[in-house]
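Design review, sub-item: ligand-bound model
Attendees: FS, YL, KQ
YL presented the inputs for the CU-O-CU linkage complex:
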Amino acid sequence: MGPFAWRQAIANEPSELKIPELIDARNHGQSISLKAQPGKTSFYPGRESETLGYNGSYLGPTLRVHRGDDVEVAVSNTLGEDTTVHWHGLLIPGELDGGPHQPIANGATWRPVLPIRQPAATLWYHSHAYGRTAEQVYAGLAGLMIVTDDEEKALGLPSEYGIDDIPLVLQDRQFEDGVLTIPQGMMTMMHGRQGNTLVVNGTVNPFARVPRRLVRLRLLNGANARFFNLSFSDGRSFHWVASEAGLLENSVELRSLHLAPGERAEILVDFSDGRPTTLETGQNSSTSMMRSRSAGAEKEAVVRFEPQGAEASPIQIPEQLSSHAHLEASQAIRRRHFEMTMDMRQMMSGRSGSFGINGRSFDRGRIDQRIGLGDVEIWEVSSAMMVHPFHIHGVHFTVLSRNGSLPDVRDQGLRDTIVVQEPVELLVKFTQPAETLPFMYHCHILEHEDNGMMGQFSVS
Ligand code: C2O
Ligand code: CU
Ligand code: CU
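KQ shared the predicted structure:
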């Protein structure tokens, strides 16, 4: 069978959504082992791809940690090259952050003890190896981390992992004849690595059986560069309940949800009518040079949901989900400006260092910003030419404005990653020290980050 016939034969074969193994730190004496390892993964039957994973061949287990606990994670490395593990969204000091300054050599083990002191949220962990983040994450080095706490448990939201509380790691990957390939070249660098196939929790063309009731979906955009614009095939609405850093104050009813690389969202979907529906995405759009975020008409299936069993009595979504202590813009003692920049002439000539922030490429030896511990600042972030998702380590922030006006509905809540198409003003409080090792801020299109669209700051 030639490649084309083979593709036709398997194209319509749906497979059951894989659910990453759950490791609850409390069931393991607050000590978790993660092993970064090479492996082989069959995304399509009979076609093996070379991949990387934690404790497996692709992606990693979901780690569940509880607020107030101290959790040791022993990360060992058998990749044959350096790696790091960064806890994206966790509020911890710089020495535990797992950024590019903390390589774990092949054969070595890193044992950070993570103090969990923040509200319930969906976070993630991934490689942040110097210059190698994009390729290592593309090959599979990423996983989810769920923080829970008593306040969240008291709300009675769907919380049965893999049953009515379903993690969805959304990625796109390039396949040739069913085998994962890694795109290279100048256009790949410019737009970030994108693929011809959507993959959810490492599953191609997935379906999931769900109970006939309210179900929580924990969405992570774990793609290197692809933006998702999610909606259901039957147009049904859903409730957005959590941004990157945890529960919103009140849920927001939506019919579509935009998710940039690195962003997470938790949504509640009512499947009690028993009708199957498909979570879909618009075509990729946001990384075009045109700055257009409007997706094409054509939709791609992300995952199909098939409700099963008897209809359960409806759960009320609590009126109030959380209450945050509000920061005021007047508390800010300083304003800083960041522009994500691309040097087209350098890029055309194939030189690295064509990406930067304020025209400067990342330099491990240079601290770009020095910040006082406990300070509140306003960060103005803008982007030249393309849309870039901006991420800051070690903090949660709120969006004060977008394009000089009130932020979008989707900008609300505490966040660690934000889409920068129009300029935004972020109100940031620096609560974590980073004295011996700095924190990073960068574009979460990983190819941009690896090629220099990143800076670092100390907090003391
Ligand atoms: Cu999700 Cu600096 O990373
Ligand atoms: Cu991060
Ligand atoms: Cu970028």
